[in-house]
Write a structure and sequence with these properties.
Low-confidence stretches of chain A: none
Shape of chain B: flat
Largest sheet of chain A: none
Oligomer: heterodimer
Number of domains of chain A: 2
Mean pLDDT of chain B: 89
Mean pLDDT of chain A: 93
Structural class of chain B: alpha+beta
Number of helices of chain A: 16
CATH architecture of one domain in chain B: Sandwich
Radius of gyration of chain B: 38 Å
């Protein structure tokens, strides 16, 4: 017998499971939201960007907010997998696959939402035929593509030993999935030479993904910061975006940890200790992000330059103040307060905090984009009244929600196909503990 | 009937009140205008007149817009009418001496210009006059020395005039720049005033051209005279056009070399690693096949 009974139990616990009733309903709801989004996108293709509320001034609406959100959330792959691994943080091992799946799903939809924002999708082709290497937009396209490939490789390499295990359970996985596993990983025999090459590759990927991850979000922040507009004209933007990205990514991992733990009964593998430790990580990142927010808003508020007055007042006490204070309080300050207490770092409060962080982060991205565009340096003159305000149309909401549902659907499908906790790694860890 | 009388009396009383108000109401006093005429001859061509109209408001002179002034040469008659001008926002209006008064112009070497305003609802009528003698400036240059000669027409001869104060300067966009440290010059008995050009290194146009100007300003006898001359004493301005150079804002084929080097190096390095990792996978696959 190749494995001990304990090993077999671990494998049985961690094998991908078929959707139950709740799972099917969940997939059904996500599919419906995606289909509504697709219909809205069809309308946008049919009638043009006029179906959106974006006009001459607010030319970047919730599509770009959503893009920034997806890029931010994708950074978690580099944090949990690469930074934790290179820093020797052992407790993070069961969370690596969750983080990588989230990263892949988010980066796919970050790319798609940019194409949606272009209006006609064929314009994407123009980026290659007319794109300029001097433009941060091209840097973003290049770095997103690179990050996508790295994330795929970082998901795939550690999967190989698990696929060998999955291939042993043809009956459980079914013919279709078995064929798929066979296609992507039958060559893995677990020889020392293969392990050596794989370990080397994972280490290289972990080192490579960190600068690329920092670049992807820094370049995304430069899309704004290289433009001379109120609120965007900041040298703080790169670090501010990275801090926010790590926070929302960690929030997403916490939510996913809780959901997968509940849905697949993984209490033995994703323990309260994991929540306790992730809680501390989230507190640290929240405080870091709060610090950058203070840098970003306190100094302009202190100076209150005439040209930025409208923008700042709009955020602090004007039209956007409710959303602004919601994002700051719900997305940063209250999570810190909750997580400072030991009870707050238990699974359920952590799940609630994770949701708060994600929702706050989404609105924070909305605030980065829209208020600036509504407060140009040169006041608006002789424009239709609708240009002075921006509220997304149902098509924009549907496409945005569709993209969020799409990302969740990819995460759900990947969790159905692959073990959500690395099996081989857990076994090795177990053996090491036993020794 | 009694009631009707009562109503009629009331109406009559009301009518009397309004009539009384109109009877005793006085029209607002009209303002006084100050009209001034300025005479200009630029480059010894057709003379022109500039009319300035002001009024005193709260103890200060303010320009008046929309005042129409009739201008005449020597006498107020239809045959000597120069024209009718209306002041702009600055309270100014200008006009060239028209051909129609050429005959009158030729009759004398001294002329008087008359300006009349007939008055309107806001302002009282006003008048002004200005007498000038016909004069001109000649400008010559030699070895970076500029000589301006002021001549007055006496009978039929242009005669040099002594003691006329004038400026000799370089014409620039922001104003006139004196050619040396002396702000003004005075003509000698030959009617001449000379100035040494000391503004060496002054940027000129593409061919290094500078415009010299000699000016008599607000002279009691001659009005405002000026004459210009273009000289090649400036430093040639060679424009640096960055339009088609390698810049951050240029087209894709004009991207700066340093940027291309950095960007493509990073790109090849990272994608080189990714390609290596794909080959690594192929290697793992091969090992698996051999087992």
């Amino acid at each position: 017998m190749e494995n001990s009974i304990t090993d077999e139990k671990i494998i049985a616990d961690l094998l991908p499971q078929k959707f139950g009733k709740a799972g099917k309903i969940w997939v059904g709801i996500l599919t419906v939201i995606c289909l509504i989004g697709l219909f809205a996108y069809y309308r946008q293709l049919r009638y043009g960007l006029i179906v959106t509320a974006m006009r001459d001034y607010v030319s970047w609406g919730i599509y770009i907010s959503n893009f920034v959100f997806f890029v931010a959330i994708s950074l978690v792959g580099s944090l949990i997998t690469a930074i934790f691994r290179l820093a020797g943080v052992k407790w993070g091992a069961p969370l690596t696959r969750i983080a990588e799946i989230i990263a892949v799903a988010a980066i796919i939809f970050a790319s798609l939402i940019i194409i949606v924002d272009m209006g006609s999708p064929e314009r994407f082709y123009n980026l290659f035929t007319h794109g300029r290497i001097q433009s941060p937009i091209i840097w973003d396209v290049i770095v997103i593509t690179t990050y996508f490939f790295i994330s795929i490789l970082l998901l795939y390499y550690p999967l190989l030993p698990d696929i060998k295990i999955l291939l042993r359970f043809k009956q459980k996985s079914g013919n279709g999935l078995h064929k798929f596993y066979n296609y992507i990983g039958s060559f893995w025999q677990g020889t020392p030479a293969q392990f050596k090459l794989s370990e080397k590759a994972i280490n290289i990927l972990c080192i490579t993904i960190i600068p690329v991850a920092f670049t992807i979000h820094t370049v995304t922040s430069w899309l704004f910061a290289t433009t001379y507009r109120p609120g965007w004209d900041s040298t703080n933007f790169g670090a501010y975006f990275i801090a926010g990205a790590f926070l929302v990514g960690s929030g997403a991992v916490v939510v996913a940890m809780y959901v997968f733990r509940k849905a697949y009964h993984l209490e033995k593998y994703i323990t309260e200790i994991h929540f306790e430790k992730m809680g501390r990580v989230v507190v640290l990142l929240s405080l870091l992000y709060l610090y950058f927010n203070m840098n970003e808003f306190l100094t302009p508020f202190f100076k209150m330059k005439k040209s930025e007055e409208g923008y700042l007042n709009g955020l602090f006490s004007g039209d956007f103040s409710v959303v602004f204070w919601f994002a700051i309080l719900i997305g940063i300050i209250i999570p810190v307060v909750i997580l400072l207490f030991r009870r707050g770092r238990k699974p359920l409060p952590m799940f609630v905090v994770g949701i708060m962080v994600i929702v706050g982060a989404w609105f924070k991205r909305y605030l980065i984009v829209t208020p600036t565009l509504l407060n140009p340096f040169l006041p608006m003159h002789d424009v239709p009244a609708s240009y002075h305000h921006y509220f997304p149309t149902w098509e924009e909401w549907a496409i945005t929600m569709g993209s969020l549902a799409g990302a969740l659907l990819i995460i759900t499908i990947l969790a159905r196909i692959f073990p959500i906790i690395p099996i081989q790694e857990t076994l090795t860890e177990q053996h090491e503990k036993a020794i | 009937m009694k009631r009707l009388y009562k109503n009629l009396s009331a109406l009559l009383a009301l009518a009397l009140v309004f009539a009384g108000y109109n009877t005793f109401a006085q029209a607002a006093p009209k303002g006084d205008l100050s009209i001034a005429i300025n005479y200009f001859v630029d480059n010894n061509t057709v003379p022109s007149l500039l009319v300035r109209v002001k009024t005193k408001i709260n103890g200060r002179f303010q320009p008046v817009e929309g005042v129409s002034v009739n201008l005449f040469l020597d006498k107020d008659s239809a045959g000597t009418a120069i024209g009718r001008v209306t002041t702009n926002r600055k309270g100014e209006a200008s006009i060239f001496i028209p051909v129609s008064v050429k005959k009158q112009w030729a009759t004398s070497v001294k002329h008087t210009f008359l300006a009349t305003f007939k008055g309107d609802k806001k302002y009282e009528e006003g008048k002004a006059d200005l007498t000038v003698a016909r004069a001109k400036i000649l400008l010559s240059t030699a070895d970076k020395t500029i000589t301006a000669t002021v001549l007055e027409l006496k009978d039929t001869t242009w005669t040099p005039v002594k003691g006329v104060e004038l400026k000799i300067a370089i014409k620039r966009l922001g104003g006139d720049l004196p050619v040396n440290e002396t702000p003004t010059f005075t003509t000698d008995s030959t009617g001449q005033a000379s100035a040494d050009f000391k503004r060496l290194g002054m940027p000129g146009g593409k061919s290094g051209n500078l415009i010299l100007i000699a000016k008599v300003e607000d002279n009691e006898l001659y009005g405002n005279l000026s004459v210009e001359k273009t000289v090649n004493w400036g430093v040639k301005f060679i424009p640096v056009n960055t339009f088609n150079n390698r810049t951050l804002f240029a087209t894709r084929d004009k991207a700066p070399i340093w940027l291309q080097l950095i960007a493509y190096s990073i790109l090849f390095a990272v994608w080189g690693i990714l390609v290596f990792l794909v080959f690594n996978l192929i290697k793992i696959r091969k090992i698996g096949g051999q087992v």
